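Inverse folding, one chain.
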């Protein structure tokens, strides 16, 4: 391993840390649920799990994406060296403090954890604002994610677990808005580029009206959850958002990409978004059992699959490699999709809950183990073309 290479560009250290977090956090959670295995934290297990998956794993992956994309968006020099070391150190320190939270005062943990996203913003805000880049509004989304983390600690300090859990759910909604914005840009662009050699790029459409409707609908989903609009109103909003997101996905020509795993996985990840919203609407409006685990359709299916898709693609492109994934990564895509399906539908198919948890965790962990086997050497090694970064 060459540490200089690991901190040579924004995606390297954070995509590695995100993979390690994914590999470790889910098996710990599954063993606690099934066998009541202690994991060191003094927090209620459900709060620990939700917080670390969102503000640990997902936030780390978002950081890697933004640290890589902002230089491309603004034409500025990429982030490297000491700032990335400090940012990674903040993230690791927070994870260690939370993992041993019984030994530390809550304010110390909160300060360490809440420092990460502002530090990220401190790095990416100047070039975005200086260039008046169209992506500058993403700083608002980053701020809202931070606010949901702050609200989590407020709930925890008051021993108000429902409030803390609500803050996690709202944070997930905000990240789903980010997926709606970014996914709506990269999926049609990457799909059209992949189909261009065969002359099929015209199969990809991206209507501005649907884009605005999708972002607006996801914002309403978040707002309805923030203010507790009630099961019926929230269910209706989720149902409308599901229809809009499904129509948006259909215009991107995903069926033409089945021979290109690095592209079809993006469509699969986005497909979980309308499916998860539809399940949420079904659960809230009818109480049907098969919709009960809609949250995992959104988190494992949409968020995590999108994260794996983006990490595997970006790491290839930004290290001078061809955009063709290793067969093991194609398998990882399929395993993660299976993990989501088992977690979301297993209980309604009359599988024992513990069996569902264990199988989903096994599929998830195998997927991220394969990711680390293939990508850890890529992330800590120099670019293959000899260029910096």
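Residues assigned per position:
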């Amino acid at each position: 391993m060459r540490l200089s290479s690991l901190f040579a560009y924004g995606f390297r250290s954070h995509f590695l840390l995100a993979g390690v977090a994914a590999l470790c956090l889910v098996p710990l959670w599954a063993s606690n649920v099934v066998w009541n295995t202690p994991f060191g934290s003094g927090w209620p297990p459900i709060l620990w799990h939700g917080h670390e998956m969102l503000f640990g794993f997902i936030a780390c992956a978002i950081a890697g994406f933004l640290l890589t994309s902002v230089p491309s968006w603004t034409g500025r020099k990429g982030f490297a060296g000491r700032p990335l070391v400090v940012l990674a150190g903040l993230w690791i320190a927070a994870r260690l403090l939370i993992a041993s939270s019984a030994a530390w005062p809550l304010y110390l943990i909160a300060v360490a954890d809440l420092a990460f996203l502002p530090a990220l913003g401190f790095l990416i805000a100047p070039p975005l604002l200086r260039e008046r880049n169209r992506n500058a509004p993403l700083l608002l989304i980053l701020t809202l994610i931070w606010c949901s983390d702050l609200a989590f600690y407020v709930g925890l300090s008051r021993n108000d677990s429902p409030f803390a859990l609500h803050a996690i759910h709202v944070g997930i909604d905000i990240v789903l808005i980010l997926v709606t914005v970014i996914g709506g840009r990269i999926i049609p662009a990457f799909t059209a580029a992949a189909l261009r050699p065969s002359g099929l790029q015209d199969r990809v459409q991206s209507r501005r009206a649907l884009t605005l409707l999708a972002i607006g609908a996801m914002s309403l989903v978040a707002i309805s959850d923030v203010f507790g609009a009630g099961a019926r109103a929230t269910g209706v909003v989720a149902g409308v958002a599901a229809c809009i997101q499904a129509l948006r996905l259909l215009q991107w020509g995903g069926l033409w990409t089945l021979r290109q795993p690095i592209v079809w996985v993006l469509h699969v990840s986005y497909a979980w978004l309308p499916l998860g919203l539809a399940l949420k609407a079904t659960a809230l409006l009818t109480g049907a059992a098969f919709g009960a685990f809609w949250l995992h359709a959104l988190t494992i299916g949409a968020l995590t699959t999108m994260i794996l898709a983006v990490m595997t693609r970006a790491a290839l492109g930004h290290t001078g490699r061809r955009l063709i994934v290793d067969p093991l990564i194609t398998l990882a895509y399929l395993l993660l999709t299976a993990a989501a399906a088992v977690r979301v539908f297993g209980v309604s198919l009359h599988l024992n809950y513990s069996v569902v948890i264990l199988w989903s965790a096994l599929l998830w962990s195998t997927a991220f183990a394969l990711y680390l086997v293939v990508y850890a050497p890529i992330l800590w090694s120099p670019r293959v073309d000899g260029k910096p970064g």
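The mean pLDDT is 95. The two ends are 15 Å apart (CA to CA).
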